[in-house]
Amino acid sequence: MGDAKATTIKDALNKWQEKNKTPLAEALYVGLQFQWPPIEKMDANLAVLKNCEKLSLSTNCIEKIVHLDTLRNLKILSLARNNLKNFNGIEKLADTLEELWISYNYIDKLKGIMGMKKLKVLYMSNNLVDSWNEVQKLLKLETLQELVLTGNPIQESMEESIWRAECIKRLTQISILDGIPIIRD
Which H helix or E strand runs over 153? Predict the structure, then answer.
């Protein structure tokens, strides 16, 4: 017996459709998380999810964000617990995405999400963001309300209260930081 082959998007979608008895083209919420063996690549088979509003691909082994351009209705995307090193490819969702869950990856730069016009929620704990320069870029996301950055080197490098005060000062648009509502005078 050799190594188990990765689960393809196509296989995962077929399994999902059988289990949920919903045609993929009509599905609003599709969960392809925890596939075994894990999904390693996003591919063109995602195009069938044209009405999908929430897609979860968390807890797989995905390295690149691709083939999202046909998902015109996607509001929530979870890619937590994968092997992503950057946001390349996410810009295809700039006009629709409201929530991005991308904790437990290997992302150190915020380039790629700057153009998100509707992003309200960014869960990005346990990545590799290590500079204020990067955190500061989030100010460009005018619609951002909720941000989680715990477990990134920048947050771990300072006391909780200092981290919080600095974030609140710099990111004037957010109202919830690391799960705790912000009270501004």
Answer: helix 153-156
